[in-house]
Amino acid sequence: MTVDSNESNSRIVSRRTFVAVTGATLGAGLAGCLGDDPQNGDQGDESADFTVFASMPAVWDFIRQTAGDQMEAIDLVPVGEHGHDWDPRTDVVEQMDDADGFVYLRDFAAWQDDAADQLERRDDVVVIEASEGIEFFDSPAEDDDEHWWMDPVECQTGVENIADGLAEIDPDNADTYEANTEAFNDELQDLHEEFEEIVERATLESLVVATHDSFQWWNRRYGVDIYSPVGTSPDDAASPGDVEEIENLIEAEGIEYVLYDVGEPGRLAESLATEVDAEILPLSPVETQLDGTPEVDTGLEMEPDWGYVDHFQEINFPTLEQALQTE
């Protein structure tokens, strides 16, 4: 979904306090609008001594879960924008003038790598590569598939990387960050085990996703086959031949649901579902935060402060239960 950045909101959130900031565009200076006109009545954690910027929603939540109340986590991607598709204004580094840290994903978006390169020249900012030590793999969707955060097990390494970076920023609270990491990684392990349990009860092994394919790490970890007529970028388009192939697959395997990314337009999902007499269900790659319903309204109401676990529990797991036809 494309939303004009003048109408989008940035999120400034500690682990226990949610403040959504409206108003000025990123180009007008993110630092200048922090704390202005919050969507709700709560104020941010003014006691936080450090500010860490996140490059997309999943990373933002990993920071706030790890930092607790010690740091302020700011997601550069505005509410309503897709983390894989969003491209900031060229002065994004200047907008992080007050940053103590920046957490990014290697090879996910060119602007993130460029910002990391520039910030590494400063001696007052710790640049944290959340993907460090995580090996990408050649998936059916792309070579060097970088969507590791869709795997709750791999996420635990990413969270540990973030904790190490936060401890570098604030050594006095290193033990707190370590404890927070252990607690959150326990949640991620529980998420992994719940995913395994869903797959064990599945009577189908295949999913059709009619938006960009962020989900191949599920195939690697859980053996779920993911098919999409679209590539790995929200900008990719499906060819008529690809769509026909997916239609034939749906009919051959008895697939009853066409899935779509909650942060993207659902036109292809709707037309495909109509063509094969299927229903539509949402999935989340945790790349978009929404305040309300997605473009394809399936009765889902999202909250802009949902974290990683919320996206799985509220969106992905209910959809998987239906789409995989669990017993």
Automatic annotation (TrEMBL):
Gene Ontology MF, one: metal ion binding
Record InterPro entries: Bact_metal-bind_prot9, ZnuA-like
Coiled coil residues, start to end: 174-205
Record flagged with keyword Coiled coil: yes
Domain of life: Archaea
GO BP annotations listed: metal ion transport
Keywords: Coiled coil, Signal, Transport
Similarity section: Belongs to the bacterial solute-binding protein 9 family.
Official protein name in the record: Zinc transport system substrate-binding protein
Upper classification of the organism: Archaea, Methanobacteriati, Methanobacteriota, Stenosarchaea group, Halobacteria
